[in-house]
Amino acid sequence: AWKAFPINQLPTEILSYIFRLIVRPRSHRQDIDENRLRLTWVCRRWRNVALRDPLLWNIIYFHGASGPTWSKSMNFVQQRTGQALVEVHVADEQEWDDDGPGRRDVAKKISYQHVGILLSALSKNTSKIRALTFKLDDKDALRHTISHFCSNRCYRNLPNLELLKIHLSPADALERSARPPPFFGGKPIPKLSPPAMNPYVKP
Questions:
Q1: How far apart (Å, rounded) are the C-alpha atoms in residues 167 and 197?
Q2: Could you tell me the pTM of the whole model?
């Protein structure tokens, strides 16, 4: 016969580990966001354990231009992740409108200003960054991102960066194929593979 297990009698370290297993296997952004929030709704102890575990919050998604302001989101990130290494994934969402003569994407896109806020905040603690991915539809936002990593000196100290991907549209892929700019001033990043540092993901 099944018996109720007194899960709240477990040590905090084991409960935290279980919480990470609940969150980590989820590959979809919405699953990760919802599952870690739901853990904080169960009871006071679960909420305290979840909020005090940086590894539960160190995968960060900025999706679309809607929702809380990005400056508030970055403050949230700094508070929750502590000194844990972070993964930051930035991507536009799509919302299709089938009314009218053609199918149109009417979702509000991540702007140059949004990207500027994010990159400025990340540049203050580059040693915490483990992974960065960008999938931007706005050309100005995409070009600002590329230019920032090519020219900003504060991004030349990334001892823990293991992954960098920038998704390109067909037009941008053609433009970049001719003469891709050197990222990080051409300085090698120790953990980033491949050493040539070609971060572009072509369509």
A1: 14
A2: 0.78
Q: Whose CA is closest to 143, among 178, 105, 116?
A: 116
CA dist., res. 45 & res. 50, Å (int): 9
Tally the C-alpha atoms within 13 A of residue 99's C-alpha that lie toward its C-beta.
Answer: 2
User: How many whole angstroms separate alpha carbon 128 and alpha carbon 83?
Assistant: 7
Q: Could you identify the residue written with the tokens 């991507």?
A: 91
CB contact at 8 A, 121 and 75: no
Tell me which amino acid residue 10 is.
L
Cα 11 to chain centroid distance, Å, stands at 30
- What's the length of the chain? 203
Instruction: Indicate the angle between helix axes 112-122 and 70-81, nearest 10 degrees.
Output: 20
pLDDT tens per residue, range 30-45: 677 788 889 999 999 9
